[in-house]
Amino acid sequence: MARRRRRKVGSSGGWLTTYADMVTLLLTFFVLMLSISVVDVERYKAVAETLRSSFGSLPTERPAAPGESVMELAPGAADPDSSLEGPPPTQLIELDAPPTANTREDSDRALEDLRRAQLEERAAELRSTMSDAIAAGDLEIETTDDTVIIRIKENASFPSGSANMQRAFDPVVDRIADDLVNSDDRIVVTGYTDDVPISSGRFRSNWDLSAARAVSVLMSLRDQGIDADRLSARGMGENNPIAPNDNEATRALNRRVEIALIPAWADADKPQLDGQPID
Asked: 20 to 30 A Cα–Cα from 244, which one of 9, 81, 103, 120?
């Protein structure tokens, strides 16, 4: 009887089959992990690029609207809507579109816009309360990046060369105090002069005069019930003019007292000395 000859299969064929199964399982595992996780955009791109270069069969990228599910085919996969003839299509891979995350820069800009809006709202409230004094040219209200400033003009508040506030201006200061008494803003009162040296025997210099005027306004605010620990005064003399000192009209603009309303968040960003912000 003739013997049936058996063909010996080399061990390399079995090894190749096992390796292909392992690669397929690994690919399936990584795709499954990606599909059920919250995908970070940069991390997703890095992982996708690594798998694509290793296995050559990952979903292609396309933009998606926020919240939209992205249905993609691996390269070489058949369109699920095409004819059923031919080889079976590659399994579809469904990924949730990664959520759009704001960057740190976007968050900082949004916070800055919110703070700016709060300052503008505060200034608008004060302008409404002081509308008659503003119309009369006695004071102005403006905002900076972190402060609301109430600017009191000299012609309405102080006689020339004097630090004694005119009694006719008392009602205006009283209304300012009424608006500030219940706020939590820090209040800095600053006096300014023009560049003409003072000739009064009471004040040694424009520094003295500007500081004395700031203290006069501060004392009026304190007498109306504003806590003393919220108040501070300083004199700047002829420094930081808001107009050129080249004629009497512009010099008059520089002779002023400013009440700065500084919110707590602005102080938090400033250097501190003995627990107090440095302006």
From this structure: 120
Nearest-angstrom CA–CA distance, 74 and 90 = 7
The band of 53, judged by pLDDT with boundaries at 50, 70 and 90, is low
Contact call for residues 130 and 175 (beta carbons, < 8 A): yes
Q: How many other CB atoms sit within 10 Å of the CB of residue 254?
A: 20
Count how many Cα atoms sit within 13 Å of the Cα of residue 39 in the half-sphere of its side chain. Answer: 23
pLDDT given for residue 198 in this prediction: 85
**Domain limit, last residue, from 96, 125, 152:** 96
Domain interval for residue 22 = 11-96
Beta bridge partners of 139: 152
**Co-location of 92 and 110 in the same domain:** no
- Evaluate whether 231 touches 222 at the Cβ level (below 8 Å): yes
**How many helices (H) and strands (E) in the chain?**
9, 9
| Residues pairing with 143 in the sheet | 148
What pTM does this model have? 0.60
By CB neighbour count within 10 A (0-12 exposed, 13-18 middle, 19+ buried), where does 144 fall?
exposed
